[in-house]
Automatic annotation (TrEMBL):
Name of this chain's protein: Neurogenic differentiation factor
Subcellular location: Nucleus
Biased composition (Acidic residues): 23-37, 62-81
Gene Ontology process terms (BP): axon development; positive regulation of transcription by RNA polymerase II; sensory organ development
Keyword DNA-binding: yes
Region (Disordered): 1-113
Protein species of origin: Microcaecilia unicolor
Pfam hit, one: HLH
Keyword Amino-acid biosynthesis: no
Amino acid sequence: MLTRLFSEPSLVPEVQKFASWADECEEEDDEDESCSDTEERKGSLQEGQTEGSLSESKEEGDLAGEEEEEEEEEEGTEEAEGERPKKRGPKKRKMTKARMERSKIRRQKANARERNRMHDLNSALDNLRKVVPCYSKTQKLSKIETLRLAKNYIWALSEILRSGKRPDLVAYVQTLCKGLSQPTTNLVAGCLQLNARNFLTEQGQDAGRYHGPNSSFAMHPYTFQCSRLSSTQCQSSTMGSSHSLRTHAYCATYDSLYGNASPDYTSSEYDGPLSPPLCINANFSLKQDSSPDHEKNYHYSMHYSALPSSRPSGHNLVFGSSGMRSGVHAENILSYDMHLHHDRAPMYEELNAFFHN
DNA sequence: TAGGCCATCTGGTCCT
DNA sequence: AGGACCAGATGGCCTA
């Protein structure tokens, strides 16, 4: 009967395997014998391999046996093994139907626990994604990239605390992106409104400059101001469709650290904890837009309050799938106007407050 | 189509 | 015995 299933091409291999095996056992059950497969293997037992270990490893395949038959079969096995010395240790008990059933249930329970465990792990990873730079609901960082970015982020924050200096944005991004894949690098750089290619070029030129074990972030010659725009102030730019992304506003840390505090980080506009010291005002058009396309677009807006008067106060950047393609380089357009805290204690407090918000 | 990522199953090991 | 944890295997899905 089950061979019909076996011949069904649409069946997945696992089912086919099971069908094949079950068919054999079905026939032999009718004859009240153990699987011929098992019998064949008995005859060809390798040295050092016991019947017990065989039936253990093939627990699902061995349907033979009522409890009372166990003794006989085990004796028979000993005979089959000839003069080989008895193995020490607990006897491997033959799988009975009842034992198989228990084993099956145990396995199912273990699978369920393992699933739950992995789900817990994944939800923890999701939480981690929310607190590292570049959080996006639509384009999640992979697990490994999340961990790498988190490590870099911790390192970057530690450097900020250690040096007590306001980090250079480029160096900051370089630190964040260290060891990340190109797509993730583009993503992170995009989140920070940096031209990924630009910064990677610098990274190549300045290899080791920012990442040495004793390095601290170089001070950039110009300052950078972060400020959060209201939704009406925000102007938008559209990502390439392959890079659909929504991002949180990342001004929180910078603002809280460097005194340009945004008044309302807990706005309903943002549905998760704010993460990194990025200075991007992400405005989610999807929150107001019912169009199905909203999932594919996200909007950035930046505010350069210290830009020269010839520049607009807002700037739109267009990101492409290979990184930023706007040709607008952050180093050229961003104006830095961060106010360094000279008092370290408040800085720690603010950072602490940020993490406990 | 290859490669990356992921979920799931599974058996092994360690611990309680 | 059973649970937690781990790593390997496998197959599905997606994207370049």
